[in-house]
Amino acid sequence: MPAIVYAIPLFVVLVALEALSYRFLPDDDERGYEVRDAATSLTMGAGSQVIAVPWKACTVLVYAAVWTLAPVRLSAASPWTWVLLFFGDDLAYYAYHRAHHRVRVLWASHVVHHSSLHYNLSTALRQSWTPMTALPFWLPLALLGVPPWMILLEQAVSLLYQFFLHTERVDRLWRPLELILNTPSHHRVHHGSNSAYLDRNYGGILIVWDRLFRTFEPEGERVVYGLTKNIGTFNPVRVAFHEYRAIWHDARRADRWRDAAGYVLRPPGWSPTSTTPRAEVGSVA
């Protein structure tokens, strides 16, 4: 059973409390909740957990197989193993997240999370139904000798932390924290479709990777949530698979194999005639 499942009751309670906060303390500058949107997010979250149960079993087997090949086996009793795991997991998440914005077939899985026009705690639960694309990014940790159960636990810790980033109810935090940690302010930028905010702030728990690899953007202009081309549906099946359908449509009508491959492997928004493809592109095809 995925560890994050045990936090689901907490997630539901906090979503309800945040929704109530908008009822009694409305803010015209915040999008708040919309019933159909929130229902779609919760449905996507429930579906992702149903799929996660068998998939985590497969993931454990793959991690364990790679771990047996590790030249050393790191001990869970050593605090340094946990330090390595924390930074290694967060860097793996950064690489995973950035790749899923820059390779369209990976974006087809991740676009689900960006498809809401709202930004609240329910948005955090709007997760992909095709999690298989994440597996390769954490394999180096197993090869370094980190036990598979530790990798899965740290992934759950990261996801739990990121749940609390999806809110407009929290402004900026204490400046030293904003410099080091991913915060609601930083993650609001990541969910923005504003041109200044595209392809920015990929971090999980830490924001230092974005600062180091020059993908950081502070929150400035008001964030417009969603995609540069929104999908206009609350149907969970369409939300889950619309971009795969769009990729198939584009690749099938391509004139050359090179162009067909480009529609699959290049950034979202790429076409044979495009010059500046961007990551936050959705499709209703």
Automatic annotation (TrEMBL):
Please, which domain of life does this record's source organism belong to?
Bacteria
InterPro entries annotated for this entry? Fatty_acid_hydroxylase, Sterol_desaturase/TMEM195
Which of UniProt's keywords are assigned here?
A: Lipid metabolism, Membrane, Oxidoreductase, Transmembrane, Transmembrane helix
What is any Pfam family matched here? Answer: FA_hydroxylase
Show where the Fatty acid hydroxylase domain sits.
82-215
| Spans through the membrane | 6-25, 46-67, 79-96, 141-165
Keyword 4Fe-4S in the entry? The reply is: no
What is the membrane topology listed in the Swiss-Prot or TrEMBL record? Multi-pass membrane protein
| Localization of this protein | Endomembrane system
Coarse class of the primary localization is membrane
The answer to whether the entry has keyword Zinc is no
PANTHER family linked to this entry: ALKYLGLYCEROL MONOOXYGENASE (PTHR21624:SF1), STEROL DESATURASE-RELATED PROTEIN (PTHR21624)
Protein name (Swiss-Prot/TrEMBL): Sterol desaturase family protein
- Recorded source organism is Streptantibioticus parmotrematis
